[in-house]
Amino acid sequence: MEAIERAVPLPATPDRVWRAVSVPAEIGRWLGGLGPYGERRGDGRGTWILTTPSLEYVRLGVLGIGPDRTVALEWSEFGVEAPSLIRVAVEPGPVGTLLRIREEFPHRRSVPRVAREVFWDDCVDRLRFHLMEGEGGGAPRGIRTISLGVRIPVGTWLPLHRANLFRWLPASGPGYPPTAFYVVDDAGPRRFPIRRVEDYFDERLSLFVDVEDGVTRAVVRTTHDAGGVVLSVHHSQWPVVSGGESRMTRLRDVFEITWRASLDQAVRAAGSEEERHGR
Description:
14 strands; alpha+beta
């Protein structure tokens, strides 16, 4: 079997992280909406339907919850494919907790490996944010994550489609993918290299932006509901260098102002597109 593995340091206590990965109400905050489907036995085993941001549903079989802070799962895409085997383990780390995730999956499957890698990276981002939000959750010290969102009332306009992306995103390049991200402060426009771009259809875009002292990650997502499209950005992994936290905090604030203006521009771009087509 092929395998995907993640070893994720989290600045929260092992007890806090264990609650987040083993209590159904908390699992829903970072992995997906968890609802009972089958019988749950006294040893923790059972079957659930999991609703995720990118999949309609997944059949999730809980094989066991161990006293050593491990969870073993069977994961079947769309509830019909041969299941993946997933193991989640919570261990003490050098600072806080080390979360280990391993997924083994059959070679024959309709969902490509890269989609699963993006999915787990997004889950880890949501878990970090959940731990930061929770009361007494061991929120990490350092640079705050940028988390913003707007609603675009034009449900047919796709902000992350390549034909629309450069109409609102402050990025440039010879084509797609973009190679530079721009912010504007008192010194004027500043250019930051984009080291890597990961996309998943028109639903999610990850930009790895070099801010000189390290590479940050901005994840832009779209979700659809009856009111249109919700466009959100989650910009995290801000580096803190010795003696430079105040400088990096100021830079982070400039990025937040830029993201706010960009999301507003996306709403305007969608409106102008609607007017152009006479809707």
